[in-house]
Please model this.
Amino acid sequence: MARKVFMIGRDEIPASVSLGAGEKLDWTLVCLPGTSAVVDLAISLDGPGAELDLAGLYLCPGSENVRMNVSVCHNSGGCISHQLFKGIVGGTARAEFDGLIYVARDAQKTKAYQQSHSILLSAGAWAESKPQLEIYADDVECSHGATTGFLGENELFYMRSRGIPEKDARRLQIISFLSPVLERLPEELRDDIISEC
Amino acid sequence: MNNSLLEIKDLRAGIEGKEILKGVDLSIGRGQVHAIMGPNGAGKSTLSAVLTGRPDYKVTEGSIEYDGRNLLEMTPEERSWAGIFLSFQYPVEIPGVSITNFMKTAINARRKAQGLPEMKPAEFLKLLKEKMAFVQMKGEFAKREVNVGFSGGEKKRNEIFQMAMLEPTLGILDETDSGLDVDALKIVADGVNSLRSPERSFIIITHYQKLLEYIRPDVVHVLKEGRIVRTGGPELADRIWQEGFDGIDG
Ligand SMILES: Nc1ncnc2c1ncn2[C@@H]1O[C@H](COP(=O)(O)OP(=O)(O)OP(=O)(O)O)[C@@H](O)[C@H]1O
Ligand SMILES: [Mg+2]
Model:
């Protein structure tokens, strides 16, 4: 299956998807500023060799309220899932990522990875990542990471010491933080997002 | 124009409420190279952090005059525009930002501050290529993300490349020589020596006298426990190398 990009709040996102043997899914969910939404997405890997590559990006600089409930179920063994979510949350916006990884008892040789990171731009912003793992098989490679933080002071100072003003340095930092997801987008959309940062 | 570029007087500074520099006096003339040596934890990097305006370091007393201006009132970017450059002891990784984009942003920010138009892309690329060749960095580094996945030596080389691009009036090298092989050491020395001029000055922080054989300093200082305890000529560096810091007290 080809790459697909969904604009949250505009495109219909299927609530559930099942991947059969050898099927591949490569999706990117994008939530642009000004959009509040709840996204419920359940993906199950139901045949050996199925692969999921899922990424998400949410930009909430104002008063948005975004919730993503993503569950990835490895019902069959020998499947791979990658998830990468990145968010920028400012103003009084709220963003929440709930990510469940479920690995059934017979789903041996599963590989499941999940990363969700957000950056807060203001004291009034709120973001939370809640990874949940339910793993019943024993031969599994699984990792997850979740962070919520402010922009790094070391990077900021390094750039300022080269003469890049604080505002521009922060912008570069945001772009660099988002870049692993931005890379997945068509050039035009990527440029639009970068120019809005 | 007076002949002193940097005047540090009775500088006391620290971090998180802990005083690290305990009254530093240092005067650097235009065109001079000063070496600063001293044991681990003496406060050498603290001094370079204060000179470049790192926000988490607080100056509690004293003054710093740079090129006739009160340095302590300037932001880090203003100091850079005024010609101060620090080669970091621990260069920072900036994922997602290429060296090309990083340097283009830096150079054009300074030009903007000076009221100049942006550098033409062709002119910029020519400069970039020329300076990369000068520090013997392979062309493919132009596209690499700043310091991400670089070896220790490559990071230091990247600092010298940036110095060559920005052509500072006051270059501060904080242990740029640590962990470098002989060839890379010579590149660092060439980087400094090629910029040496009657207007430019350097502060070379180092633990080794090797670099100072390639970059002959005019003055050598020993910083110990937050104070400069000894100042001398290049021979002081040789003596420290042979005898260590123990015998060197004010
Ligand atoms: N955030 C901090 N909080 C408390 N003390 C600190 C902090 N950062 C640095 N220091 C202390 O300040 C002192 C001076 O550190 P500095 O990095 O300036 O030393 P240095 O002379 O550069 O040493 P080296 O040769 O090892 O690079 C050290 O004792 C160090 O532990
Ligand atoms: Mg140091």
Remarks:
- Helices of chain A lie at 153-161, 166-182, 187-196.
- Chain A is about 20% helix and 50% strand.
